[in-house]
TrEMBL record:
Pfam families from the UniProt entry: DUF4376 (PF14301)
Protein name: DUF4376 domain-containing protein
Residue span, DUF4376 domain: 124-223
Species per Swiss-Prot/TrEMBL record: Candidatus Kentrum sp. UNK
Amino acid sequence: MYWVIDTGTSEYLLDGKGKYLREEAIILPMGGGIAKYEHQTNVPPIPRGKVGEFETVILQDGSPEIQEDHRGRKLYSTMDGSSVEMKEIGPLPNGVTDKERPSPLHDWNQEEGGWAPNRHRILQAKLAEIKTQLKHRLEKGGFEAFGTWHSSSQRASTQIVAMRQSIHADKFQKENWITLLGEDTRLKKEDVEEIYEGGAQRTREIYAAFRAHKARILGFGSDTEKILLYDTSKDWPMSFEEYLASEREKLRGNNDNDDS
C-alpha cells in the first residue's frame, strides 16, 4: 500500500473527509517488481487521531513527522490587525496571531500574547464622542416649549432672535412658525419669549451633560477598561429623535396589549 505525498510540501494528502489518500501499488511486467513514484510512499503516516487541528504530517527523511499547519486559518497581523494568509506549513511567524483585533483602539501586547486597549487613544475617542454628541444635540436635538417641539438649528435660533429684536423695537407682528411636529402656528410675543427661554435652557442642560460626561471619563484615571466600556450616548437631555422613538415604543406596547 502506498500513500499519496505532495511533491511540493512532502505532506501526506487527505481526502475531503480527512482520510489519508492511498494508491494501490502498480505491478510491473514479469520481473519488473512494483512501480513507485515520487508522489507515493510506502511509509505509513501517523494516525489522524494523534494529529491536532492545526497540524499536518509530512515525510521527513523517510519518516512521518507532525508539523504545525495554519494554512486556511483566519490570521491577523499584530501590527495593525489586517488579515494574513499562511501559504506554507510551519509555526506562526513573529507578527502573526489567530486573535482578531477587537478595534483600532487596541494594540498588540507581546508579553501577554493578546490585544490590549490603548488608553490614550480610547480616552481621545471617548472625548471626541461626547463632543460629537454635544454638537449634534445643540444643532439637531430640538427642545420643548408650550407643549410641542421646536428646532434648535442655527436657522431657527436666528429667526427667534430676530423676532425678539422686533419685539424690543416694538415692530413685532405675529409670525408664522412650523414646529418639529409639522404644526403651522402663528407666534405671539409671549410664544417667542417662551421658545427663546426654552432653547436657552436646553442649551444649558446639554452643556451641563457634556461637562458631566467629561468629568466621569477623566475620573476613571488609568482604568482603561472602564473608559472603553463607557456609554457616551446616555444621560443627555431628551432629543426630538429620542422623543419620537419613545412615542413609537409606547404605541407598540399599546398594540401588543390590545392583541393579548
